């Protein structure tokens, strides 16, 4: 059921995905969805529950944090349609946006706090790093801009890692 929900949310977005379509995709009765998840919001929350599986912040080298994070995210985007569904829904639905903010705050912010030269700047720096990672994901996996889709993952890492690294570790701009 959750696999079917992930596929429908990824393909249709939150607004257009219906309980009936998800149930049909899963070959179950729609009442089963309601029984286990209550409503579409409950099903969505369960379907996009995701652990980014980021490296332990204490294990990250400050000198390689940009490359490590970008490589990790590109690998996840390439293999995990849940992230695509979450991005698609987060761009158009408040509940999806809140879910996305929570995931990044809980999982990316600790990394920023670990490597940022000024802990007070960690939230802003995590947001800047997120803007790069999510911008790439939007253009490559949702909007599917041909040049972004055509880039090999190693080239994406080579281009994006220095920017993410700078956002997280560079001195505050004067």
TrEMBL record:
Pfam family, one: TetR_N
UniProt keyword DNA-binding, yes or no: yes
Feature: DNA-binding region: 18-37
Transmembrane segments: none
Record InterPro entries: Homeodomain-like_sf, HTH-type_TetR-like_transc_reg, HTH_TetR, Tet_transcr_reg_TetR-rel_C_sf, TetR_C_16
Keywords assigned: DNA-binding
Domain of life: Bacteria
Nucleus is among the record's keywords: no
Domain HTH tetR-type: 1-55
GO molecular function, one term: transcription cis-regulatory region binding
Name of the protein in question: TetR family transcriptional regulator
Organism (species): Streptomyces muensis
């Amino acid at each position: 059921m959750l696999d079917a929900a992930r596929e429908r949310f990824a393909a249709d977005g939150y607004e257009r995905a219906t309980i009936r379509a998800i149930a049909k995709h899963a070959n179950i009765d729609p009442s089963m969805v309601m029984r286990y998840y209550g409503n579409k919001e409950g099903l969505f929350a369960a379907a996009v529950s995701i652990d980014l599986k980021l490296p332990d912040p204490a294990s990250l080298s400050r000198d390689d944090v940009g490359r490590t994070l970008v490589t990790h995210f590109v690998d996840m985007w390439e293999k995990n349609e849940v992230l695509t569904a979450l991005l698609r829904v987060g761009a158009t639905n408040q509940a999806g946006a809140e879910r996305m903010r929570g995931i990044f705050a809980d999982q990316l912010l600790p990394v920023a706090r670990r490597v940022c030269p000024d802990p007070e700047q960690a939230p802003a720096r995590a947001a800047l790093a997120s803007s790069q990672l999510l911008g790439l994901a939007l253009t490559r996996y949702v909007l599917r801009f041909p040049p972004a889709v055509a880039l090999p993952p190693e080239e994406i890492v080579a281009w994006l890692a220095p920017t993410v690294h700078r956002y997280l570790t560079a001195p505050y701009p004067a």
